[in-house]
Amino acid sequence: MKGARRTTPKATRKAASKAARQANSSLRWRFMLVFWAGCACVLVGRAVQLQVVQHDFLANQGDIRNLRVEPVAAHRGVIQDRAGRPLAVSTPVTTLWANPGEALEHQEQWARLGNNPIIDSRAFASRVNSHKGKEFIYLARGLAPEQAQTVLAKQVPGIHPLTEYRRYYPAGEVTSHLVGFTDIDERGQEGVELAFEERLSGEPGRKKVVRDLLGRVIQDIEVLEPAAPGQDITLSLDLRLQYLAYKELLAATRRFKAKGGSAVVLDIKTGEILAMVNQPAYNPNNRGNLDTGSLRNRAVTDLFEPGSTIKPFTVAAAMEQGLVTPTTVINTHPGYLRVGSKTIRDHRDYGVIDVTTVLTKSSNVGVSKLALSMDAMVLPGYLERFGFGQATDIQYPGESDGVLPLRARWRDVERAALSYGYGISTTALQLAQAYAILANDGRRLPLSLLKVDQPPKGEQVIAPASAQSIVRMLETVVSLEGTASRAQIPGYQVAGKTGTVHKVTAHGYADDRYIGLFAGIAPASNPRIAAVVVIDDPRGESYYGGLVAAPVFSAIVGGVLRTLHVPPDKTDGLIAGNLDGEDAT
User: Fold this and answer.
1) Which of 163, 226, 255, 551 has the largest CB neighbor count within 10 A?
2) Statement: the pTM of the whole predicted model exceeds 0.85
């Protein structure tokens, strides 16, 4: 037909090719649509699995990697003196610890530590490799924050800080024996720290925190259990008096080249221990080169025979039995007394003297005759009532009971020796308590390391009249005619007794080794203070109690009375005279 267009084979092929391309394109689009729809379904399904099905599990896994439960340190209670002055406090310090497993994953970063003075790279590697199976090891404890920062600044993975507390003792060695110390975990080891451990120690708490990949705490989530701090302890101690007693005792032990010494100061109206010092001492803040022998609180642990300081109690027992009065006459001639196989001697022949002079001159013969005039069980019974042979129950760890023999039958020589302080052992604290009873009109109060708000009633040991008579007799001991004139205190009347005893060694009594003692009361007219000074093994010509211990008593108690503003009871002052009194017993 004329006008009809003829389709050529070439055109047909082009049309077919175009149709095929369109079909392929449509197929690809459908494939891509199906593919992306499938991917979307997979993602949605995975999201549902993660957010719904496995949510709890995955959240827990995340918490394990980022959340930590850490301890919250509880600071230990403060130990303070009666006026609130701190004697032991806990200061915050930084402890460095490591997670070996975490650290081993980043060994290439250990070199950052280099030669760090706290823990270098070599020491760190050794610690980590030897504790691979653990999750917690200490690296360094009790560091100052600036010390810890020299390590933390290196940002070595696996090393973490922890806040702890370390005990600090402001008075150092002055209160070391009484207060004691703690170990690195702040557990009491000695003294008051150990005695009142339950009250002083706190209960640590727990908190939940978030850590980053380097182990740093970046957020506190919640406190699971709050820390409970320990209770504060207020001691009966007066730090001013403690410093005074420490200084005087230290000077005396150095002056007389003594092996050691002790001093105890008591408030007789309350039974409180106002001061207790010993030599040698130690610094509880630096125990690196500590001599274990310096740890003993000698005033409560070390026993000694009291010697002539026991004589007032022998006289008290005889007075209570109605056998003598202060003016009763005793014949001490010829200056010695034969009892069994033993000869008891005085420093010289005092002849016929009254009971007061027996104490003034410290006559062994006189008190031996008093003891032998009583029933055998009387004197031991009275000594027990005065507190000898039993602990004072101040709750101090390691306190000695002392030794007071209990016998069904006493030989005469044993009774005589007991009357002048041999065959019995006591501590400085027990001896001070006995003199406090005399000063307190014969009433025994329980001793206390803690501040007393309301003085206890106590127990009557001997009649007030007897106790007052003994105190008046002991005033003569501190006169120029007595053995303890060096114990005099300007402005105050003093009553007391010296003692000098041979030291007991493995081979018996040593001929050239002594313990010098003085026990006293002041002011004698209205007693307030009882104190005991012990000088152990003084070397040199001076070793009598009246020469080595009495002057220390004078210096300590004189300072105590002035510090406490106790009114003087002696306005005529001291009369100059010979101060070379001796006590050979």
Assistant:
1) 551
2) no
